[in-house]
Amino acid sequence: MRPLASVVLFSLASLPATATAHPFATRAVDASVIAGSPAVRGFFAGARVDANHAAIRGEWLEPEGADEDDDEELTDDEEELTDDDEDAEPEGPDADEGDDEAIDDAGDAPVNEPVASASDERGSSGGGAPGQYNAHGVGMRVGLTMVPTWILTRFLASHTNALCRGESIGGFAADRGLTKQDGCNYYIGGEYIYRKSRTFDIVATVGYQRARLPDGLWLDADEWADDCQAHDGEKCNLAAADYTEVDMGFVFVQADFIGRLPVIRTPNYELAIGGGGGVGLGILVGDGVHQTPLGNDAVEAGACQTFDDLSDFTRCTPAWFDDPDIDQDGDGSAIGDTEPPDDATAGEDLYANCTADDCSVADLNAFGSRLEQEDVPAVIPVINLVVSARMVIKDSLGLVLSGGFNTGFYFGGGVQYFFGGGGK
Asked: Of all helices (H) and strands (E), which one includes residue 33?
């Protein structure tokens, strides 16, 4: 039996058996009248809608050859119901309106509503609740740092530097007073990252930066004029140079504020570019900066006469002399230091033992004039300017490239790990 016919018979059978015998009934209720009423027809139409929906979803399949017979039955039944309906219209003004609403409600039944995919329910980075991200992270940064020659030229006529390109000196740097270069300086640090939003980070960093330069003869800018060709003891004064040793670093603590805007964003990774700035403090560590005056005897010997001679310590060699500004013998007075200390290892000519690239620290100490520079502060302020690009993978792994300026120009990278959720 078709479900549609079953619905009709069930609706008829469910009527109270005493409907025609109720003492207060004014007239008998005929089953055909009930079947032909608009309410039953509305229910009948709703059942057909439900049956059609079931057929669309594949929940009910009819056997082959049943459609034609059933359509003929339905045609006969509908004609009979139509005839009976003309004889028995229900009373009451709201009957038609209620039945029409029932038909409309049946026709509005949802069909195959789309279901949101799992990827739609997650954040754009592929994990967690919609729109959320890992707000906390830890990381490590490392890179190279340098002070360009053109910055030092403002203060020094000659100097040394570490520019990470071997010992060769190009014409541009040589014209600006660079006499020696060797080595690289670097920084390394650990960091905590708080992602205030997807585009703004607050980063706390503790790290170490190396600041070491090759030994060299540094000459103040006002001791060598631009038109100088050779030493003359006045405006071209090579004797005023200092044998300078720079061997130090500093531990820094700083806070950076970095904003980045995404240029690529997918469910699996995000690439963002931006920049920012920060402030902090650097605590100086290491041996510091020591200087030993070259002295007049070094240039009066005739070997140290031109600017290029400053790059060779066998030509411009520090020598002991009675420096009127320094207490060389440790007696509390800078006057009367006419004799070198007894433990001096220099020869009779009182020159330090030097190669082309460095001099004996023991000899320089024996002169009594090798002094640590006290004007280098123990704590220095750090002001950081940074440009940065970062790729975040699966909202967990961050790969960073950054460059900028603090105590010098720097360039490096870092790795970050994000965790903990909490970002919205």
From this structure: helix 31-35
pLDDT tens, position by position, 16-26: 443 344 444 33
* SS3 (DSSP) at 308: helix
Q: Which of 211, 215, 219, 220 is CA-nearest to residue 147?
A: 211
> What pLDDT band is residue 177 in, cutting at 50, 70 and 90?
very high
CATH 2.40.160.20 residue ranges for the chain: 133-423
Helices (H), 108-194: 118-121, 149-152, 171-174
CATH code for residues 133-423: 2.40.160.20
What is the tens place of the pLDDT at every residue in 397-414?
Answer: 999 999 999 989 999 999
For residues 335, 327, 296, 152, the Cα torsion angle rounded to the nearest 10 degrees is -140
CA distances from 332 to 30, 42, 325, 336, 337 (A): 135, 119, 12, 11, 11
Identify residue 209 by its one-letter amino acid code: Q
**Through-space distance between the first and last CA atoms of the chain, rounded to whole angstroms:** 58
Residue 288's SS3 state is: strand
- Rounded to the nearest 5 percent, the helix, strand and coil shares of the chain are 25, 35, 40
Q: 248 - beta bridge partners?
A: 211, 286
The reported pTM is 0.66
Give the position of tokens 């020159």: 351
Strands (E), 148-303: 156-161, 178-181, 185-197, 200-220, 242-265, 269-293
